[in-house]
Input
Amino acid sequence: MKSIRHRLIRSSWLLALAGCGRPAQSGDAPAGLRPATAVVPGRVVSPRPRSWRLAPNSPFHLAAEGLHDAGLVTLGQHQVLRSRACSGVGQSLSLRLVEGEAFAEHALPDSPAVSTEHGSPGDDAISGSWPDNLLVLVKHAHKPNDPSGREGALLRWNGSRWSELTLPHPVTPPVEYRPYLPYALLPGYDGGVLVAQSRPGERFGGRVEPFYLVGRTPRPAPDFSGLDFPSESANIPSNHVEYGALASGEPFVIHDALFQRTRRSILSLARSTKAGAVKLDTVIDVPRSIDFQFVTGQLDSRSVLVVYGQETLGPTHQTWLRVYDATSEIELGPAAKLAPGRDAVRFWLAGGKLWLHRGDVVLRLDPDGWKPHAKLAFSAGVTSVEGSAAFWANEQGKPSYFDESGTRHEVPWLVGEGQPFVLGITVRETNDVWLTARTAEGESLVFRTHAMKGLLTCTP
Output
């Protein structure tokens, strides 16, 4: 049996992001893994030998190694490291709090092993309040010898033990004798969590179903299931449903209906207000297939939803964009119109502005139109800095930083052969940045711009 233990390492200096790329100064301790022996209570071990090492002037420090499917989760004001349990049993999760510049000495007990195949903890959703009321949506869940062939399980931590929640059975036609499956978690609903539900066999949420509310709230959950969403067939839906919530906590559902015979697409949006009103709007109705994505955040001072996509079978691949708040559509004006093109697009909200990554250019929407901000390959992933025009980018598995002017700064990270590949970047504050990476062997590594007081690892 394996367990997570701390290996204490010496502190090393933190290179401020404003000085990324500067050479080491006189008096700076060397960055990277320590040649000295690390200490585990009761025995002596050394850091794992690697074919690579941290660059001499890297702002990053190794925080965790030897894990699997590791990543960071933000729960309110808390930062939690999640990974596959060191026992390696099924889909069990390990959750450990980050306390300043150290990991908590003890993690929560491992979650139940509800899955033995498909997916990883990185696919799961975690919500609630740390440490006494957590919900974990395990996607691709499958119990051994479970004939239902289900997809999805909902686990709850009540502060002392884990349990699996069973959702209710559908009460509207078509008749279904199996309970609903969890499809998505929407936190922040007056202190409760809304669980979006789907019927067994409808992995993409073919119908809009009622929410299941976890927690006590001063008002009931909104119900979008009775709205008249367009559909080619009531019994065999060819729909794709996605759920989300505004920053204010108000939930919404996006319903994409594809009519197979005509290839017509109707994208609908249902949302609720704090007053309890439910509203259904048509986002786009075109005689061809579309794809869509959405993001939420702040535009100026408003909490908004941005829905966008392309007409995938049209002659011009026309890109479309709609913006909504809790009650109405926000007209952006002709300056926001995008030219047709086959290049993919990606939007995000940061610093009260709307941003667009198209082709190899990052653009900012100003009152008089889209303005170039930075050059960036479209294959790169972007992580914005809250309240700022600056952002981090994952460029072919390596981190880089773009300041508020759009100037690119190459961030020194590793040197040597066989380097791991960056999977995700998390920005807690301007000078508190985390990297999650994976080696060719599937090992998860975690790096941070703050030197941690202990190195976390799965040890024999």
The two ends are 7 Å apart (CA to CA).
